[in-house]
Amino acid sequence: MTAQYDVAVVGLGAMGSAALAFLAARGVKVIGIDAYHPAHTLGSSHGDSRLIRLGYFEDPSYVPLLQRAYRNWRALEARLRADVLEITGVLQIGAPDSKIVSGTRASCAMHGLAHEVLDRDETARRFPVFQLDRDDIAVLDPQGGYLRPETAVLGYLKLAAEDGAVLHFGERVTAIEHDDAGVTIRSAGGTYRSRKVIVATGSWIAELLPELRGHAVPIRQVVAWYQPKDGFVTQPGRMPCFLRDEGDEGSYFGFPAIGVDGVKVGRHAHFREPIDPNQPNPPVNDKDTALLDGFIGKRLPAAAGVRANATTCRYTMLPSEDFLLDIAPSSANVVIASPCSGHGFKFTSVVGEILADLALDGGSELPIGAFSFDAMRRYLDRRAG
Ligand SMILES: Cc1cc2nc3c(=O)[nH]c(=O)nc-3n(C[C@H](O)[C@H](O)[C@H](O)COP(=O)(O)OP(=O)(O)OC[C@H]3O[C@@H](n4cnc5c(N)ncnc54)[C@H](O)[C@@H]3O)c2cc1C
């Protein structure tokens, strides 16, 4: 007999694990299915650390969701009795009119968020690891910091299981068929019926959701860790996490020496190389390491000792580089968990809540209007001219 659920969650990385936990906490009969075993290194939610910040330069409309995300992260920690969110401050550095600096200040001003604006000398005095150009400034977000992605994913799955969710790992979903009453989910391991399904398959999302083909594009991302030359100025507490706007060259991000590998840096979206999600990520090459070695040597010379490690990961980009959190146009029983364009992890704790709302209530009271299918279509129309 085919097993019957209220909601099925396909994909148990960041977004799917959180959605599953919120659904199970609401007492519904729920199953989560993942092709691999958590917290694996084949998707987008591994690598020790993810930035979180409140003064969001990308758009001030994200701030209310971030405020909710902070609250939800603390609730996760309280239930798990584990540390997931560490506050180090986030320093956002660049020319005064650069996108990151001016956008962060605008976001802070609009929402009345605490922040400090530092000139080059003040930055050097307080955070000596950073090398600023003469006219650069830095905006300190005192509420910024980093999240531990593996702890978060495993933690949400643990809570989901405690609250009665059924978990299937190592089982790839091959088809989702929908009808008026619900969905049929097929995998090599079985067939399941559910009233609703949340598709949270990250870089693989277009395989199960035809409406995202050509719109959700997985790209290669590379990060590297360096043993600091000066182990004092790179300690958390002495060194905040950071974003650095390099104008036409894009932006870089990084973390203090959290673990044994040292200071971690990456360039947002790296070289924007599309990848096949079903192939292993192309390995780290000399061009990748030359880029990151060059950046750290120029901008954080005290951190630029031996490169201890470098690895690949993947972003899944949407056309506007925003999110997509909506019911699928093809079926009211299918909910789309956003491929988050390389900046979604910090929102995991609120996205999980939103996905549960969409599946159970057909909508959410949280402000997600900008992340609808219609918003994506409008963006595409504008871009087409
Ligand atoms: C290097 C790097 C740095 C980043 N830095 C930041 C940061 O500092 N701050 C920030 O906010 N965000 C950051 N991001 C982005 C953030 O990590 C991602 O947006 C987020 O992790 C995506 O989560 P996800 O659940 O969508 O995907 P994933 O975690 O990849 O989960 C998708 C899951 O679906 C499963 N799956 C796929 N297909 C199937 C199938 N057919 N059947 C069953 N299961 C399936 C996969 O096995 C996987 O477990 C970064 C990303 C990378 C790669």
UniProtKB/TrEMBL annotation:
Top-level taxon of origin: Bacteria
GO molecular function, one term: flavin adenine dinucleotide binding
Record InterPro entries: FAD-dep_OxRdtase, FAD/NAD-bd_sf, MTOX
EC number: 1.5.3.1
EC class name: oxidoreductase
Domain FAD dependent oxidoreductase: residue ranges: 6-358
Cofactor list: FAD
Annotated keywords: FAD, Flavoprotein, Oxidoreductase
PANTHER family noted in UniProt: FAD DEPENDENT OXIDOREDUCTASE DOMAIN-CONTAINING PROTEIN (PTHR10961:SF7), PEROXISOMAL SARCOSINE OXIDASE (PTHR10961)
Protein name as it appears in the record: Sarcosine oxidase
Organism of this sequence: Rhizobium metallidurans
